[in-house]
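[Automated response] Your request has been received and processed.

Submitted sequence:
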Amino acid sequence: QVQLVASGGGLVQPGGSLRLSCAASGTIFGSNAMRWYRQAPGKQRELVAGITSGGSTKYADSVNGRFTISRDNAEKRGYLQMNSQKPEDTAVYYCNLGPDYFENAVFASWGQGTQVTVSS
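Generated structure:
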């Protein structure tokens, strides 16, 4: 019923940039927080960035200052601009929706995500 599709991943050199997109359907997009997560090989999924329905943003320490999260409620899309990329950013990236004030809850299945590989 609630479906999110992440796209825009690929291969990028260290120091380079990528912009990921998140397309939503079957949900009232603007009333919920939109968050980006990533999972590296052998690692647990981690929260990378979030933006609430009111536009407040939050970033993991590892990406703060390099990544920017945004949303377009009319188009029901979210974005993650990733600059100054590091090899440590290599992971499968996922987007999801959840309550503004409870980061542990998500409204959709994780899907396949989009692969980001940072390597020279």
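Summary generated for your ticket: The chain is about 0% helix and 45% strand. The two ends are 40 Å apart (CA to CA).
If you did not submit this request, please reply to this message.
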